[in-house]
Amino acid sequence: MSKTWIGEELYRRRAEAAANEFIEKISKILNVKEPPRVRVMLPKQFDEELGFKEPNVPAACYNFIDNTIYIRHPIIVDRKILLHELCHCLQWEEKGLKHLEEAYSQLHLPHCQRTTERECKEFEEMFDGKIKRLWQRIAKKYGVLP
Ligand SMILES: [Zn+2]
Fold first, then answer.
1. On the CB side of 10, how many CA atoms lie within 13 Å of its CA?
2. Which ranges of the chain would DSSP assign to H, the alpha helix?
3. Please, where are the H alpha helices in 30-96?
4. How far away, in angstroms, is 38 Cα from ligand 1 center?
5. How far is the CA of 122 from the centre of ligand 1 (A)?
6. Residue 120 C-alpha to ligand 1 middle, in angstroms?
7. How far does residue 61's CA lie from ligand 1's centre (Å)?
8. CA distance 105 to 48
9. pTM of the full predicted structure?
10. Residues, CB within 5 angstroms of ligand 1 (ion)
11. What is the strand order of the sheet 68-71 is part of?
12. pLDDT one-digit tens code per residue, 55-91
């Protein structure tokens, strides 16, 4: 194992711990029934485990089957991405299969034009200011401030 690998793995674990603490706290504030857990992965593992291929690789995604937010790279963990994916979790909690139908029926549209994505973008903007300090406090505690 190289020094770089150890450094990357330590950072990944710290980023994951920070993201999970943040999601737990925000979920309490927003009354999320079943808060998702967060897994932060290195790009190669993310692409392999989740089956993504260039050029269609997202920075993050929410999987309703295991109620998990997957983040593709430790250094991109940030509050907006986490809020965005938490919104997808809420959409699923609220509408279940209907939400999926809605999402799948719009797959032909550009990402930013899909209703489900627009909702999450609004959600991000609505809460970002309110939770900025919470994220900064947690990210600082785990040493993953950008
Ligand atoms: Zn999205």
1. 9
2. 3-29, 43-50, 79-95, 97-105, 115-141
3. 43-50, 79-95
4. 15
5. 11
6. 6
7. 7
8. 26
9. 0.91
10. 117, 120
11. 37-40, 68-71, 60-63
12. 889 999 999 999 999 999 998 899 999 999 999 999 9
